[in-house]
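Let us begin with a simple case.
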Amino acid sequence: MGKTPVTVVVITKNEEENITECLESAVWADEIIVVDDESTDTTREIAGRYTDKVLLRRMENEGKHRNWAYAQAANDWVLSLDADERVTEGLSGEITDLLKGTPQYKAYTIPRRNHIGDYWLRYGGEYPAPQTRLFLKKEFKYEEAEVHPRAFMEGDTGHLKGDLIHYSHKDITDYLRSLNSHTTLEARKWYLTGRKMSMGHAIWRTLDRCFYRRLLRKKAYKDGIYGLTVAFFSGIYQFVSYLKYRELMLKAVDEGQKSENRGQSQELRYRKSDS
């Protein structure tokens, strides 16, 4: 039986603990590409057991990095995976059946089972939480942003039923480490794009994300302590991002003032020398 004409693209950075199971779940595809961001562990060595297309490229911007990776695919259709994700048998079979015919859409969303450790988060907006992961490479593009880049594509998007399993966080410590990293990138995104954010708006976003969206509307409390944790920190994410954004703004103002003072001092020295 032949393999499915789709290219699975995996972005990696020190993923030796995850990459084997990820690639094992993708062996039904006729091409696998791993784009590695200068891992210092055995990620590339392990990936080489599954594909001869292990490419080394430093990631400076997530959106730009992903667009480059997808462009390397030999197939028209691309399935984008992260190393902490696994393709279920139901999903691989659904994609295979889809590509045997003529797909109606240029891209398809896929539901994900997000986990903390071994616990599957079913509420609070964590499931199905579909993402566009199967697409025609010439029709799909990410914005060139450092964090949470938006996807751009003309036309409607189809929806698959098979799941991706996403082991997003090993434990709460890993969850908090990720939150710290992503809030830093979010703050930089706001700053570099000239986005205006006030404390009042940040507080409103914090309460909206935590209480209204996660707890009340999407019933995160049904996931117990993990659901409450994710709801709480999804709100905190907004406020911490604002605090880091505020620091960047204050630093820019301070550096601007110092630069202006240096310019004035230099001008005074010129005047004294002329006199």
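The second case is a distinct protein. As before, the sequence precedes its structure tokens.
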Amino acid sequence: MLEPAEFLAREQGRAQARKEGGVADAGGGTGGEEVDGGRVREAEAAAEAWASPGMSEAMSGAAAAPAVPSSPKSPKPPSIADGDTWAAAAEAAEGGSTEAPVLMDDPGGSPRRSVSISGSQPAMSPPILPATADAEVATEAEAERRNQPTQAFHTSEASPWQWETDDGSRDGRMSEEVEVQTNDGTMLRYTHTYRLGYSYLAGRRAGSVVLLHGWSGSRRSFPQEVIDGLHAGGYSVLAPDLRFHGDSDKPGHGFHVARLAADLRALLASMDLERTVLVGCSMGAAVIWSYLELFGSERVGGCVFVDQAPLQDRCEGWEWGSKGIFDAKSLERVTASLNAGMAEFADGNAASCLTVPLMPAMLDILKGETLKCKPSQLAALMRDHTHQDWRPLLPHIDVPCLNLYGDRSGCFPVEGLQFLSNTIPNCSSVTFEGCNHWLYLEEPERFAREIVEWANSRVFVDV
């Protein structure tokens, strides 16, 4: 591996040689000052970044790391140990490459440390280095233009990267634990699963699915079969823990569905995603409706709503709300159940939301995730959620939608669930026969397949 000083000297020499001898540049023409200056500036920036304490620590031992095997479906990403990595990034920025070089850890080595991408420095967040100027994620100017705070984005120090292959092939995937900081300082944790050779630009413009769990759940509510099915369909998958849930922070404020929608906006902005497929299960669907009402569909390609009626409370003219929490008295009963014991509540909740039996190990995971929540916070959040009426919003949703529900839902009558596809202009509906509220746990392979087939035919038709 070239040392930074050697790399810088080489690039300066190449630039001088092009000026004197008319050496052809990477784009096929003679070496112009613009291209040469860009490569030298990139080399100078690389040398400066390499010399910084944080980069020195992160890169220690990089030369000894084994190369990441290449995927037969995508070109081999340059290794961080390759002296041409920074030059390749410069060529990509000048249009010489359509895919950004991928900066990866040794699959069996240490995880990445916290890497901020705020400010005007080149984005160095794993696993990618943006290829063009319009792919920079969180510059101060862009944050000001969007009238929102610059977001922090970094990998979790506690979670190593996982490296997997499918059926013994070399076409594997990466799964990383990531944190994003919202504008009130709350840290959200999520998992990002994507294919080796993942392109940042491709990921932000098409092919990302965000899975939003329901009340008292977490990202681990989605079984591996769901992640595998979406991944096999060509999609990268982001599964966050909503605030007050899972491993995300649990502050003493923000007990509103609208606050969760603002958190979702922070997540999408931190990755600069576009045309995202948002999948909301139960209360997760309400988070999507709030997001669309507050921020519009600028970053959204399509929405999937899973077993959730647009109003939980019952009122005059609306008897299709929740079967369990539909007025002040029923809310009091659930609050009392939470305070009486979270373990018993978790068992009862699973019994009411499942028809198909699950493996004991999965039930233990679901219960363990519920036990991470605080009873008072769940009660406060449900108090806001249950009276929110999203029916007036539905006719104004302007992206393709998919409505998935179980015909044996223990939470809502079928009429309340079918109201979505009857009211949203571009919404198809699929019934999961014999399934309950947690249909993504009861038929996970079909759940993923329905989303992939719908997204391919209704959202990403032009891709």
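The chain has two domains: 4-113, 140-459. DSSP finds 16 helices and ten strands in the chain.
Keep these points in mind for the review questions at the end of the chapter.
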